[in-house]
Design brief:
- The chain is built from 13 helices and 42 strands.
- The chain is elongated.
- The C terminus is likely disordered.
- It comes from Taishania pollutisoli.
Length: about 900
């Protein structure tokens, strides 16, 4: 066969194939509407409920060799009269009905297979026993149609199924991972082979959930008789959590009965497969003992008689060993029973004759759980409990780690009451006995806090709880409690407040240890906010804390009284030590909303070491004056009103504060800002006015500035620190200053000093030359930001000072006229003149020892100096001073 002939045959072959494909595709397109219409008519003929379908399409090549009708995004609403579009009976992304294409060609529509893709099916029965799944029409029409039901296979993938029966208050929910049903569904009597792999999410009665998160696998046959309306499941094996159970069932129009039973299951298998923790690296439990289980579900199919559920189970001769923690439980036995007593509200779970032995000793007890809508727990516990062993037998879903020894002897009867807001309150009907904790530890799931070394005794007497030497450690923190809690019953019922009277002692508390997550994690995950301080607890606590630290700040020797009420902490007469200083006062912290606090503090200290304070508080997050620049001792009195967010910190824009500060023996050495001031003066104009030598002298003096006393009151409002005008009398020169400094480091400072202070102290042949506070005053302004300060001559301050000086001189003249001449007598604003004592130079000339002549000379001089002469001399002196001050420069 030649190459050309092979190529010709291939062309014909592929041409025929393409032709067939095009022919089939064209035929499907031509008959599409007819096929879809036929299927929809047949579906609507058998369903009561309205079916909403977003899109219907024909597919052949994706379901080859079958032809399929695809219903996309199918929704069926509940059949209840009050149901809305949010009440879903059934939803699926896609339902595919498969047909034989040759049957379609012969206009015979025989349904062969149904595929159901991801979706949900929610079956419900209301309080009156009415279901929401009554969607099939009852019809006696025997007219033949072109549509035939020849179903042989049903495939279901990823369907979320739930059944809620409010008549008996039961709910079952499962995820059907894969389900295959095969059988001749069109026949009257047939057998369905069912294979199913699912995850049980919930098996609940009332508020009590029995099994969740367990895998169930089954491969069973169902005998169906449509003539009699029966379904029979012969005894077969199913696997629950990989354990074999015998399953059988029968369903007819008159009754229903299903049974699940297991005899002599190995206790180790039950413990390994029903553990709440699915951790691969944990070694399997070893031991001996057997478990028996029998569940029976019956229904008479009458509306006035609900479904009856009874279950019995027990453990005999049990022994378990957990190798990783060396937990050993021996002599384990218990008998259990559950029944709903044929009615909602009558169910109960009973655990009788609980007995086991651990390394801490024997334990006996019993427990009854009833009223599942508001579960009541009543029972008795007596003996030593190894909490790790208890957590092994009865794991609590919210607890990750639990251990230690618990010596218990109590009788209890407690009922949990659900509320509309989703919370639960507790009604304590009886609670008596005592509990002793020995080296306990606990850690909750998704909680970084690990509480350990829990020791102490708790005494229970219904409405009161006594705590004796209860100690606990958390990270680097520890706590010791002694006292009483009263009104316990009213507190758990949320009817009244719990009263606490407690002595609280601690050697160290680290605030960062107390949070369930770090501040960074809360910000990243945007975790929901919750109140930190309780609303229904009132307490009187006596505090004695050795050390408390928060974000690098340390407070020591804390003593005082704490009042807790209405989410408010009031520290009265609190004393503590920080940065070597003794501090006393009061602090009030109120949680105004979730994790948002308002703090009001009144504190004072008289022995603050500035260098230590600046170093311990990280120089208050500024770099102008650091701990290596400053020294001295201070006394301070602080009033602080500040909002505080537990996640973001203090809200500085809304801080209000008044700080009275007095610094003694202060010293500023090597401050860079002072160097910037000196550099700003090294301009030609400044050198001309001040002189280069004077500028250099200023720099030398500011490099090491000492002052005996500095006193002022600083205020904080709207994010601005305001420093009122104050005088700094230092070893270098006397400076008057004022200014503002914002929390975002914007500054505006004003300085003034006398030019003659820059010069070295001069002397004459008659002694030291004393400053008479006259001479030219230099005004400077530093503004901008702390990282990039700007400097200029402060003309505004100079003008303001000159106006103030002139006004003062006017008042002085009026005072002198009032005192000497009797003017302005009726003006109460004018005060009598008080002569300012100024230092004077006294020239003494000795002519001999004639004292009598000297005394006569002095008396004669005093007579000549009348009040008017003194006044004229004063005016002359003030006029000279004013002329000197009015010297201006640019």
């Amino acid at each position: 066969m030649t190459k050309k002939r092979i190529i010709r045959i291939l062309k014909w072959f592929f041409g025929i194939v393409v032709g067939i494909v095009l022919l089939i595709t064209g035929a499907l397109y031509y008959f599409k509407d007819e096929i879809i219409g036929m299927v929809l008519d047949e579906v609507n003929a058998h369903l009561k409920a309205k079916v909403q379908v977003e899109h219907v399409d024909i597919a052949f090549w994706s379901s080859f060799p079958n032809l399929s009708v695809d219903f996309n995004h199918v929704f069926i609403q509940d059949t209840y009269e009050y149901a809305t579009s949010k009440d879903t009976l059934f939803y699926s992304d896609k339902i595919r009905l498969r047909f034989n294409p040759m049957d379609i060609w012969r206009e015979e529509y025989r349904l062969k297979r149904i595929d159901i893709y991801p979706g949900t099916l929610q079956l419900k029965v209301d309080d009156n026993g009415k279901p929401n799944y009554d969607i099939l029409k009852e019809t006696s029409d025997t007219t033949a149609t072109e549509f035939e039901f020849d179903l042989q296979k049903v495939n279901i993938d990823n369907l979320r199924f739930s059944y809620t029966n409010r008549q008996i208050n039961h709910r079952y929910a499962t995820d059907l991972i894969t389900t295959e049903l095969e059988g001749k569904f069109a026949e009257k009597v047939f057998t369905v082979h069912a294979k199913c792999s699912q995850i049980v999410r919930e098996t609940r009665s009332g508020r009590v959930n029995f099994v969740s998160g367990k895998a169930v696998d089954m491969d069973i046959n169902l005998a169906i008789d449509q003539n009699k309306g029966t379904l029979d499941i012969p005894l077969t094996t199913i696997y629950i959590a990989k354990l074999p159970f015998q399953f059988s069932g029968f369903l007819s129009p008159d009754n229903m009965k299903f049974s699940i039973e297991a005899k002599k299951l190995a206790l180790t298998d039950v413990a390994n497969n029903f553990s709440m923790k699915e951790v691969e690296h944990v070694k399997k439990y070893s031991g001996t003992g057997t478990v028996n289980f029998h569940l029976l579900i019956e229904d008479s199919r009458k509306d006035d008689i609900p479904v009856a559920v009874d279950c019995e189970f027990g453990v005999k001769n049990g022994k378990l060993i957990e190798p990783t923690q060396n937990i050993r439980i021996s002599d384990l036995s218990l008998n259990g029973k559950y029944t709903n007593n044929n009615g909602k509200g009558n169910e109960y779970l009973l655990l009788n004759d609980i007995h086991f032995q651990t390394k801490t000793g024997p334990f006996r007890g019993n427990l009854k759980v009833s009223e599942f809508n508001a579960p009541r727990f009543e029972g008795k516990a007596d003996g030593n409990l190894d909490l790790a062993a208890v957590h092994l037998l009865f794991p609590v879903p919210t607890v990750d780690k639990l251990g230690g020894n618990l010596v218990v002897n109590t009788t209890f009867n407690v009922q949990s009451i659900p509320k509309e807001n989703g919370k639960t309150t507790y009604h304590i009907l009886q609670c008596e006995g005592g509990v002793e904790l020995v080296n306990n530890f606990v850690q909750l799931i998704d909680d970084r806090r690990y509480f350990h070394s829990i020791n102490g005794a708790v005494f229970l007497k219904n409405n009161d709880v006594g705590v004796n030497g209860l100690s606990v450690k958390l990270g680097n923190s520890d706590l010791n409690l002694n006292g009483m809690f009263t009104n316990l019953i009213g507190y758990f019922k949320e009817e009244s407040k719990l009263q606490a009277t407690m002595d609280v002692q601690s050697t160290a508390i680290r605030v960062e240890d107390l949070g369930t997550t770090s501040k960074e994690v809360q910000k990243q995950t945007n975790a929901p906010r919750a109140y930190v301080l309780p609303q229904l607890i009132e307490g009187k606590l006596k505090l004695a804390v050795g050390k408390l630290s928060y974000e690098g700040h340390t407070f020591e020797q804390i003593q005082g009284n704490l009042l807790l009420s209405d989410r408010t902490l009031s520290f009265n007469d609190i004393k503590f030590k920080t940065s070597g200083a003794n501090v006393a006062g009061s602090v009030k912290i109120k949680e105004q909303s979730e994790e948002y606090f308002q703090t009001v503090s009144t504190l004072s200290s008289s022995n603050i070491q500035l260098k230590t304070l600046m170093k311990d508080w990280n120089n208050f997050t500024q770099t102008v004056i650091r701990d290596e620049h400053i020294s001295g001792q201070a006394a301070a009195s602080l009033y602080l009103d500040a909002p505080f967010d537990l996640r973001s910190g203090a809200n500085f824009k809304h801080v209000k504060a008044d700080l009275q500060l007095k610094i003694e023996n202060g010293r500023l050495k090597g401050v860079e800002a002072f160097k910037d001031i000196v550099e700003s003066l090294k301009t030609p104009a400044a050198k001309l006015v001040l002189g280069s030598g004077n500028i250099k002298s200023l720099g030398d003096k500011l490099s090491d500035l000492k002052f005996e006393t500095l006193e002022n009151t600083l205020t904080i409002r709207d994010g601005v620190i305001t420093i009122p005008e104050m005088k700094i009398n230092s070893s270098a020169l006397n400076i008057e200053t004022r200014g503002t400094h914002t929390f975002d480091n914007k500054i505006d400072y004003r300085f003034s000093f006398r030019l003659r202070d820059l010069k070295e102290k001069k002397t004459s042949e008659f002694g030291d030359i004393v400053d008479d506070n006259t001479g030219m005053i230099v005004y400077l302004r530093m503004f901008g930001t702390i990282d990039n300060p700007q400097f200029e001559w402060d003309k505004d301050s100079k003008v303001a000072d000159r106006k103030a000086y002139i006004e003062q001189e006017k008042q002085t003249v009026k005072s002198m006229l009032k005192s000497d001449l009797g003017l302005f007598k009726k003006d109460t604003t004018v005060q009598h003149y008080q002569e300012v004592k100024r230092p004077k130079e006294i020239l003494e000339v000795q002519y001999g020892e004639d004292k009598q002549q000297t005394e006569e000379f002095e008396q004669e001089k005093k007579k000549k100096d009348s009040k008017l002469n003194n006044f004229l001399k004063k005016m002359e002196q003030e006029d000279k001073s004013r002329k000197k001050v009015e010297l201006e420069f640019e």
